[in-house]
Amino acid sequence: MVKVKIPATSANLGSGFDALGLALTLYNYLEVEEYDRVEISSADAVKIPQDEQNLVYKTVKYLYDVCGRELPGLRILQTNNIPMARGLGSSSACIVGGLCAGNELMGRPLDDEALLRMAVKLEGHPDNVAPALLGGLVTAAIEEGEVYHVKQTIKDDLMFAAFIPDFELRTSKARKVIPLEISHKDAVYNLSRAALMSGSLYSGDYQNLRVACADRLHQPYRLPLIKGAKDIFEMSYEFGAYASFVSGAGPTVMSIVNTDLFDFESLCNARLGERGMDGWRLQMLSIDNRGAATKLD
User: Fold this and answer.
1) What is the distance between the alpha carbons of residues 193 and 240, in angstroms, rounded to a whole number?
2) Is this structure's pTM higher than 0.90?
């Protein structure tokens, strides 16, 4: 049996649309073994597909097919702590977990670079799957099918405050509101800030982060789909956050906070209660610099 631990991810980081992502200390877990049929179950109350449409199963099957191996069946046990359709990389966790599990079951014929290429092919973009696999902060680009990426280990003096609402926002819906064309001015605006974001997180110049996460490509169009998001931005900055941004396609809002702000969580929870925003849940996370972890049990 193979066991896999896969971190949640937060992508875009405001200005780094489809290019920047980081791994966080919230995890999905998989237990996978070859079996004579398909048997899939959930270790918690989360409803998942229990047939061959299950994304973990489909990913393992894809990897076996690519490697020319026959897959008789699988027994899969999933623990899904990463909420689905919330902008925290739940589908990427399934894809990365499935690739890691399948690779381990076959005796590790592929290295991380090959697994990353497959993950990007399956997901369509690298901003979630790359940090889920590699950990840390990952900057990535695709050129002629190749994935070019840089992983940066981030210091542990930051907290990542995930404001998670009780409603979903499908990525397909969130992408539909983004314009097909942008101005040269807006492109330059985002390029400069995406570079500033990566450099500031790595160097520790956190005072730059509020400017670095400013965006003109996706957040202005997605925020109207997320009721209460503007209130989250306002309270986060009021209580000392370095930066706030829509996590992935949303609807989760992520704020970057110094670990010295001991009362940030309590102040935000009190404000959420005062404003009747009981549908929002705040979860304080840290950076995961390791990425997916696999072991043969």
Assistant:
1) 21
2) yes
Task: Look at the block and give the residue holding tokens 């070019």.
Answer: 148
| Dist. CA 247–CA 90, nearest whole Å | 12
- Which H or E run contains 80? strand 74-80
Q: Exposure string (b/e) for 38-53, b if CB count within 10 Å is 16 or more?
A: bebeeeeeeebeeeee
- Are 6 and 132 contacting, i.e. CB atoms less than 8 angstroms apart? yes
Instruction: Give φ, ψ of 247 to 5 degrees.
Output: -80, 120
In tens, the pLDDT along 146-164 reads 999 999 999 999 999 999 9
Q: In degrees, to the nearest 5, what angle opens at C-alpha 282 toward C-alphas 238 and 247? A: 80
- Peptide bond preceding 251: is omega within 30 degrees of 0, i.e. cis? yes
Distance CA 23, CA 137 (A): 7
Instruction: At 105, list the tokens.
Output: 């079951």
Measure the N-to-C terminal CA separation of the chain; round to a whole number of Å.
5
